[in-house]
User: Fold these one by one.
Assistant:
Number 1:
Amino acid sequence: MSQNLQSIFEVYVAGVGPSSSHSMGPERAARLFAAGLAETPARIRVTLQGSLAATGRGHWTDRTLVRTLNPVPVDVVFDSQTTNLPHPNTMIFAAFSAQGDLLREWTVCSVGGGSLREADGRPVARAEPAEYPVGNIADAMDYCHANHLEFWQLVEQSERDVWPRLENIWRAMTDTVKRGLASKQIILPGTLELARRAGTTHSRALGLKGTPRELGLVAAYALAVAEENAAGMQVVTAPSCGAAGVLPAVLYYFKARRRVPQRRILEALATAGLFGASIRANATVSGAEAGCQAEIGSACSMAAAAAAQLLGATLRQIEYAAEMAMEHNLGLTCDPIEGYVQIPCIERNMNAALRAIECATFTQLTDGRHLVSFDDVIEVMNRTGRDLQAAYRETSTGGLAQLWRRDIETRLRKPARS
């Protein structure tokens, strides 16, 4: 058995977007660094490396650091040349006196979901420790079968004050959906000038009937959260900001359209958190480490597990839904255009939410037995992510990002029409 799971409240963290690894993580690191200083420095230098250097401007990393460390002057250095890093999202904080003396230096890594890790690999703890007796989903299934528990009951047994804390998380998720649907903002921040679509998608879906209406509403809920994140508003990581729209969209649909009681929604949220905690413990939820499969794929798995439970699935069927959701996201690249969490990120939230419900529905037609386990597919996801070229791991140098840049250059070279 692997190391026991950490708290699901390392998976669910409320914070400001657009990126848990590029804005939430650096903000937390900056606060910790400042709190650890014995005196107020004259200035602070923050060196961003790896993916943080490549896409930090589009993710507002520099802005976040300057705002968080204010009123101390901050120099943000984008170092895209240094290799052999402890993590693709590495930051070096350095504080200096008025005389230029180095007061303190700290190398820290933003490893996804707003979590931090020391350069030597030690986690920088955030949530109150949990006491899980399991290290992965296979362990969890064995434990639950042996003790006649559901997945959510294992979470209830292992976490402190789980239901009030999950109520707060669910309230924050619900607020984000509602804000996104009601937003009057027309264009999202950034050079792409991308239009918000959640509100119009929602109103148009209500004009449809039957299955198209239901699918359209799920799409609208996912777009609402993803667009709020892209606008730098508060979201809840599930397991990251870039994938924050998937799970809330699915759960909000079951609550609003299928009238599922809130207690059952919270139980599904607990189960989804358990699957997210297992991914964090045995792989990664960082797009910079393993591509978008680690973010959207993980969110899709979590949402599929939650939806399957709400549909009355067995433990085995829930595990199958989560496995299937990840299996068909394997190899998904992280290639945000201009570094913004907008294209393809926003539509991927919508796509993953719909896929999660499909996976959960299909498992109801089976007895839950299948060949590839959830833990197996997470191991494969992790290895696949490490094998991806760096261009496809949140550097904006490959895939859609490269195509966009090439098309821009082509248009600029074309002579203007007379």
Note: The chain has two domains: 19-124, 137-404.
Number 2:
Amino acid sequence: MSTVKETVEVEVPVHTAYNQWTQFEEFPNFMEGVEEITQLDDRHNHWTTKIGGTRREFDTEIVDQLPDERITWRTTSGDIQQKGTVRFQRVDDTHTRVELVMDVEPSGVAEKVADMLGTIDRRVKGDMRRFKDYIEQQGDESGAWRGRITPG
């Protein structure tokens, strides 16, 4: 099992960062390889990913959640075994430190090679940078973009 850790500071209040992270169905907008997340209920999500041409599906369960502070999850079934925690720390009124720590158990040969080459670590670090860009470009966690009107 490999542990991946990445921290970014985002230019939004802690409540906004936390609320955006709980919009699981928007993860494909900033997470490479995530095709779709379906929220099944308040604690369970179904993920569809495609990495290196290989499609994987799995379910996750939120096992601990403290609003504006942390979310901890684990996989419950499927092709991927992982667990992790994302923490939100208020820096000041307009800045939040977001720290992600994940334990990932590569399942197939391709995933094990990718892990040994550091691909999983780089992908998570890239996802966190894209989360920073994504949230800072938004007016709020509802998905309304600053400076333009979205249809709906």
Note: The chain has one domain: 2-137.
Number 3:
Amino acid sequence: MLERQTPMDIADRESVRADLDQAMMAAFCRALNASGLTPMAVMSAMAGALGAVYRQVADSHRRGECPCGWQPAGASDIDMLQTIFRMAASAPPANELLTMPIQGRA
């Protein structure tokens, strides 16, 4: 695993989030196009893959293989992930200036 990291500021966290969003969307589109599965079947596979990543990272930390100090909390971690998933899936799209159509000139 990685060495212990310093806390990230909000801009860094947003950059990581944007990178993960882009990578996951690309993986989703590739899987959808290559497999012929339905979108929900591909999303279910992605959810299973995320669960497997959590399990592998948690197991590694339980064995003390990473010096970061994180201790997996099992059920409460999964509850938190479910809550974040629910919030992200039901949130209205953010009105970001970069994605808004131009309406004229100032």
Note: The chain is about 60% helix and 0% strand.
Number 4:
Amino acid sequence: MTVMKKQGSLLLILAGLVLAGLVIAAVPSLRDRVVYHLDQWRVKAYYALFPPEEAVFQPGGTPDSTVTAVPVVNTLTPTIVSQPTAELLVVTPTVVVPTPTALPQSYIITDVKWQNQQGIDRWNYCAPANLYMALNYWGWSGTVYDVGDTMKPFQDDKNVMPYEMGDFILENTDYGAVIRYGGTLETIKNFIANGFPVLIEKGTYILETTTNRMGWMGHYNFVNGYDDGRGVFIIQDSLLGADYEIAYDVIEKEWRAFGNTFMLVYPPEREGEVFALLGDYADVSNSYQMSAQVAADETATLTGVDRFFAWFNRGSALVRLQDYNGAATAYDEAFRLYAELPDEERPWRMMWYQTGPYFAYFYTGRYQDVVDLADLTISAANQPYLEESWYWRGRAKAALGDLTGAQADICQSLEYHPGFPPAIEVSRNLGIFCP
């Protein structure tokens, strides 16, 4: 009798579990929450077994000269994926440069609307939230979803690049945009004091829910004020809150991780004013040279993770100048320094946000280095929604003669970013069909 009671109780429990499962499956909000938490547990377990900070890329450094590359791939123009129209805009001769005046000690641009990247039903909405704030300030009538649905057609995409933000503006709005590198704190202040909020990309350490450790990741900030007396910028931080204050030395350190990248959004009738305020940054080639020199200077003066960033920035600046040999050498040194950093300081997500090493190694014939770096980046991500890494690995595999592997990777890139222009171009050149 006792056995029968136990069996009956077990059947009741199983029936209850089945019923609960059916209820969860029938209610989308419950299903989504359960799936989300199960996925979080899975990621935590994976990172506990395979700490991403421990994975280190070691460049081979040797061109794959013995391999017969697939000609159709290597005839593709080495277009820099991170170089959109927004970046290539140049100053027009008719611009009148205003007489420089002393900046006020403090200045705040009001009437900005803060957008939370978390309080919405979308994942990782940092870039859409920040771009929405920039557009909304100038009177754009769209929503944060209008931005995100276009820039992130695959909603779990790990990152949105600055060039994707610039392209969204130029292709979907009536506003102008310009992207530059190697900015300074004075650059930000100058634009703010003249009524132009500034978007910047930086790196920061936060407590991660997936690893329960402090970890590094990229983050956008919408900067709309500064105060020299207190030594702070006022930002609309989509993660930390509205009117968030950050010290000059902190933002300078965090901004370095992305080569001091900044973006301006502006009404078309104020384009001349923007380029006048850009000064030496107006000429895009000159801005690349300036950022390369700043990085070179910092490689000699900085230490630790900051020196790693300096060498990485040097490589990225040389990629933009299409000096791929110099860039590859700089990246080799950056990765050597990365391996020497303590695990907890390693910015292991670096290749989620900046893909310059792929350019440098590919265009110096180091295809296996491209494959190895992409392998590490994809495997460390666990949720490998990184269309750029799949794309570059596919190109490198094709150059090494592995057309089957190339097709799989290019198609995976297009799955994680439908319509991704570089992947579409390569698929057409290789005759790849993705189901």
Note: The two ends are 59 Å apart (CA to CA).
